[in-house]
Amino acid sequence: MANQPRPVVLRGGTVLTVDAAHTVLPGHDVLVAGETIAAIGPGLAVPDGTVEIDATGGIVMPGMIDTHRHMWQTAMRGYGADWTLTQYFVWNYLEWGKVFRPEDVHAGNLLSALEALDAGVTTTVDWSHGLQSPEHADAAVDALVSVPGRFVLAYGNIQDAPANWTASPGFRDFVSRRFPGGRGDEMLGFQLAFDVTGDPAFPEKPAFEVARELGVPVTTHAGVWGATGDDGIRLMHEHGFMTPETVYVHAASLSPDSYHRIAATGGSVSVSTESEQSAGQGYPPTWALRAYGIPVSLSMDTSVWWSADLFSAMRATLGADRSREHMEAHAKGDTVTHSSLRAAQVVEWATRGGARALGREDRLGSVEVGKLADLVLIRNEHSPVMFPLLHPHGHVAFQAQRGDVHTVLVNGRIVKTDHRLVGVDLASARHEVERTVEYLCAQLGEEAWEKGMNPDVPETKILDNPYTYTDYRSASTHERRQEAQ
């Protein structure tokens, strides 16, 4: 490939290979030549002109992979912090999502792509269900290709039925123009994104047939409380549309029968723990997925609520899984003395698990010679949190955060170093987002804008306390003092 970057060596770090054995290599170098990892070892000899990056005291790990992020919504960062899933559906699906223009999708995707790289997420699936027109889709892709990360466009349209938009001439024209090879390439892949409601008529069947015709995977929100459930899984299975490439998002409120069907057909689940905990799709399902042997990847869902980095996802996932284990044991009068889910497993879900879900495990997801050089160096000499480094997988899962991401490589190129993105015009991205926020605020009007951010708080009642003496509580302070004397 033309314009190959200079070789890069990360010197003396603790390397989390995330290979099958979860091998940890303290004090090792990682040499990158071209697009791939050329060598791993202590004190490597390197070619003249190699860029040397000191990784001493830091952790070198694979680039993280987010398998489900609604990037187009990122200009609304934090707006829905107090939403439930119902409020999210109403705002985006029924009311205001439809007013997003192509330039608003571009602004959200651009900001989301930049924040992904900044947090060490080198591959992101853009679960792009705001593509109301080919112009919206072109805007989404234009933003993604302007950022030096690895992305997958999962094309969707929540404003129309999957059978309709997948059959439209505009969609077909977009695919032929932007993804002439069908699945895209190493830097920009392609999927279809739509949900299955469980309607016995199976109206989504034509969309699955289009995906099969194009030879692209389907990613679908499954097991979302009150929206998608077991009937959708059954219909997919009975019609032969559950494949090893299918990614089921959330899968948090499914029956054992549905989990068996997913496991038997080789599919995987994208778990968005912070989303499931807060929005209400169901309890984060890793405890169930582990029992059924279903592969897991991690995702952040949307910046309308959450942080959009996988450090948060790993931390929340470990906490939710272990909490479930403790609660179930306590209900039986038992005590958990050894945790089943370990930090190394969750680090794998954030990296190799994502590669596996995307069918790229042979090229991405671990630090091994010959694999594509998507790498992250976690090192922060200005933070007291980076030492001592005793349990590397635990450090990544529980201690590190996006501010500790020192260097990021994608496809062998340095896209962030010394804690700063390389060659990025943040001012321009900020200006785009500001224009989108101004436009959306004007569309809603000030009152609706404020109301959207501040939904009603349900009334609550303090439980009656049987140990409270009514006459004591009603007595004056003076009377209580006299009684005390």
TrEMBL record:
Extract the GO molecular function terms from the UniProt entry: hydrolase activity, acting on carbon-nitrogen (but not peptide) bonds
Q: What Gene3D superfamilies is this protein classified in?
A: Metal-dependent hydrolases (3.20.20.140), Urease, subunit C, domain 1 (2.30.40.10)
Q: Give residue ranges for domain Amidohydrolase-related.
A: 59-415
- Organism's domain of life? Bacteria
UniProt keyword Hydrolase, yes or no: yes
Q: Matching Pfam families, A to Z?
A: Amidohydro_1 (PF01979)
What InterPro entries does UniProt report for this protein, alphabetically? Amidohydro-rel, Metal-dep_hydrolase_composite, Metal_Hydrolase, MTA/SAH_deaminase
Name the PANTHER family on file: AMIDOHYDROLASE-RELATED DOMAIN-CONTAINING PROTEIN (PTHR43794:SF11), AMINOHYDROLASE SSNA-RELATED (PTHR43794)
Its protein name is Cytosine/adenosine deaminase-related metal-dependent hydrolase
